[in-house]
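Entry:
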Amino acid sequence: MGFHALRPSWRTAIATATVAALAVTTVVVTSGTAQAAGTLPCDIYASGSTPCVAAHSTTRALFGAYNGALYQVRRWSDGATTNVGVLSAGGYANAATQDSFCSGTSCTIVRIYDQTSRHNDLTIAPGGGANPTADQGANAAALPVTAGGHKVYGVYISAGNGYRNNATNGVATGSQPEGMYMVTEGTHVNDRCCFDYGNAETNNMDTGNGDMDAIYFGTLCWFSPCATGPRVAADLENGLFAGGNGSWTANTGRNSAFVTAVLKNNGTSTYAIKDGNAQSGSLATRYNGALPTQSGYRPMTKQGAIILGIGGDNSNGSVGSFFEGVMTSGYPTDATENSVQANIVSVGYSKSVTFPSNGTAYRLTNVASGKVLDAVNCGTANGTQIDQWDSLGNSCQQWRFNNVGANKWTITNVNAGKVLDAVNCGLALGTAVNLWDSLGNTCQQWAVIPAGNGRYELVVENSGMVLDNLNCGTANGNKANLWMWLNNTCQLWSIAP
C-alpha cells in the first residue's frame, strides 16, 4: 500500500457494512493446547494443520529442530558477509557471531532466512511505485534485546529500510486462506506508510484492492475515526483496516514494550485481528468478522510476495521493530494462536536502554567528518541553524539528553537551552534541523540507536529519518540535515562528554 511515502529522490552519498460483522473485542483467556518441550511456533501451527510456509526471526529458531542460519550481516569495512545461526537446535541466536564479525566497524542485515524448507528468504527491497529507489538494510546492532536469557538482535526499521521476496514458494495467492503473526515493539511506531509484514504484490506496485494481506502496526489512521495509540491493522491494499470496513474503534490497540500482532484471512468472507503483550498474558481479539464490503476484498486476490517494513508499493516512511514472524497455509484456529502466544511469552523478551545518561552534557562528533555538532555562531534564538565545526570546547557544542519515554530523548543545546528540532516537522529528504523552544512533540524527540564500535545513529521520531552530515562534507560550517538511513559513517555520531 502507498501513503505518506518519501518522495522519490536521488542523492549522491558515500552512498493503508452492509453485512453485519460478527465482531467482538474480547480478551482470550484460554491457554490453548498443551505444548511439549521444544515445541516452537511452527511446530504448533503444524499440529493445528496450518503449517508455516515462511518463518523469519533474527532472535531464535521457530521450529524445535531448526539448526540453521537465522540471518546474514554484511560488514561495512570490507563488504564481507557472515551468517548468524542458533546456539543449538531450536535455540536462540548466537549474537556473539555478529559481535565478533562486526567488531571495529558496523554491519547491515542483508538477508533474513526462511526457516521452512521453502527458502522464502527476505532480502533488501528494490524500488517500487511509491519510491523507485531501492531500500537499505537495517543497522545490525540497532536493536539489542534479551530473549531466553540471551543477548540477541532484532530488526530496527527506520525510514528507507525494507525487505522483500517477490518469488516465493507456497505463500497464499488469490483467495487461499492464511494466517500470520509478528512480534514487534509497541513504542517504536509512527504514522507513515507502512510498517507491514506479510503478503504483498509481486511487482512492487499498488495493483488494486485485495492484492495484499499483511499485518500493519503503527498509528496511521486510514479510515477515520481510529482509536488512539498504535494498533494492529490489516493492510489489504488501499486501506489499513482496523476491522470491518476499515474504521473499528473497538480495536483500541496496544502499546506494551513488546507486542504480538496476529492476522488471519480466509480469502473469501472472514478476517480476524488480534494483539497481545508479548511478555505476558493472552491474546485480545480486536475484530473477528466479515471481510470489507468495498470492491475487491471478496474474494481476495493475494499475490504471494512477502514484505517487511514497507508497503506493497515500497512506501517506506514507516518505522518499527521486528523480532520474529511467520506466515501459514490455511486459517489457524484460536487454540493454535493461543498456544503460539504462550510460547512467545515464554521467551521473556526484554530490553534495557542505559545510554546516554539523562542530563549529562555530551559532544556529538560525526564519524565521517570528525567535526562536532554545533549551534551556528553560538546562536540562542529560535531557528538557529545547526552545522559541524572543529571542536572548540565551548557550550555551543555541548548537548544534554533528557529522557521523555522508551528510548526517546530531547537533545538540548547547553548554551542556548533550546532543543534540536526538525524544521517545520518536515518529512522530506533533506529536512533541516535547528534549535527551537521545547514543544513536546515528536519532531523534537530522538532515538539513540547503537551501530557498533561506540557509534550511534540519531533518529527523529516524527519521520524516522536520521541525523545526517549533508553530502558527507568535511568542511567547517557543513550543515546537518535529515535523511533516510544509508548505512554509512556520515550518519553515525560518537557521543562523549
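The first helix runs from residue 41 to 47.
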